[in-house]
């Protein structure tokens, strides 16, 4: 038997609330399968399991707040015998019948019922995708993300001074961000480097690439930026990892945290996995999927723990440059500003050219300026010679 524990989904996460089980005792699970949903200060996270087996028992009920490291479930491996009896009080969460009107009953999980109430949705109007047509938390979130067109209605009133669920979630996220950034500036000796580069070659490459594709198939410039960062990390891996227990723990792959501003306020930085191995179209699809799920509160636990370096891009907001704060325990952050026409010297002549500023914030406990400069030089080379981003 092995134990499945509450994972740490952020630098300052101490506990999370298990809001929904996607499995029950006796179910077979595979490595990487999403088995539960955990609510944290940064939203609802789909939690994956990292070993295959049979669910022997669930140790936590839906709605229960659980400290990081606490046992969530017991998994029986291949060849192991099932227990002769289950422990007393074992929770077996499952969708339960819930009356929705006279003579009408439906099946909906407690977590889905709670979320529907928060969003003001009538479960009787939802379509369930669970067993026997039961309504799951995912069904509720999907309904909220794609509402049917209807006339504008006044927002429901709340008692004076009492925050709504949305306000509470936003406040919790701001607290989590404040804690992480305070820890970062307190513990991490930042050093900053920057460079200004002409991106005319990259924009020309992008225009040629998109010219042969439909609007839905086109790349956006941040895809090239992320690719350049990923390839630069191949050459300078010292910036890709985490400072833990006084030493650098290198990341096993190039998984880039992508800073995403949420519509309700706050931000998250989930990992774009294997950014150094994705073809252009695959990277665009992965980025689009990440943006969509981040704004629907449907991120996965691995996406909040795997990033070895974070990239933030504020150019679309008109920012010229970014001097970012490292997200601990990561050791570096790359920031991109806006692309704008600026004076540039070409062949001895001053011309107007599309330029942008890129910055690096790095942890001086792990690297020095020479290493950071080598990284920025490689990043600059890749964006000024874009044919090297995806070599034949």
Which short descriptors sum up this protein?
392 residues, globular, alpha+beta, OB fold (Dihydrolipoamide Acetyltransferase, E2P), Dihydrolipoamide Transferase, 3 domains, Chloramphenicol Acetyltransferase, 7-stranded mixed sheet
Task: Describe the structure in your own words.
InterPro entries: 2-oxoA_DH_lipoyl-BS (IPR003016), 2-oxoacid_DH_actylTfrase (IPR001078), 2-oxoacid_DH_E2_comp (IPR050743), Biotin_lipoyl (IPR000089), CAT-like_dom_sf (IPR023213), E3-bd_dom_sf (IPR036625), PSBD (IPR004167), Single_hybrid_motif (IPR011053). Belongs to the 2-oxoacid dehydrogenase family. Strand 9 (96-101) and strand 10 (104-108) form a beta hairpin. Strands 11, 14, 17, 19, 20, 21 and 22 form a 7-stranded mixed beta sheet that branches. A 5-stranded mixed beta sheet has the order 7-2-4-5-18. Strands 1-8-6-3 form a 4-stranded antiparallel beta sheet, with no helix packed on it. The chain has helices at residues 110-119, 137-145, 165-187, 200-210, 221-235, 280-295, 369-384; strands spanning 2-5, 15-21, 28-29, 34-40, 43-48, 53-58, 64-67, 71-76, 96-101, 104-108, 190-198, 241-244, 247-250, 256-258, 260-261, 267-268, 271-272, 299-300, 309-313, 332-336, 340-346, 349-363. Helix 5 packs across helix 7. By secondary structure, the chain is an alpha+beta fold. Residues 84-97, 99-105 and 147-164 have low confidence and may be disordered. It has 3 domains: 2-76, OB fold (Dihydrolipoamide Acetyltransferase, E2P); 96-145, E3-binding domain (Dihydrolipoamide Transferase), CATH 4.10.320; 189-388, Chloramphenicol Acetyltransferase (2-Layer Sandwich). The chain contains 7 helices and 22 strands.
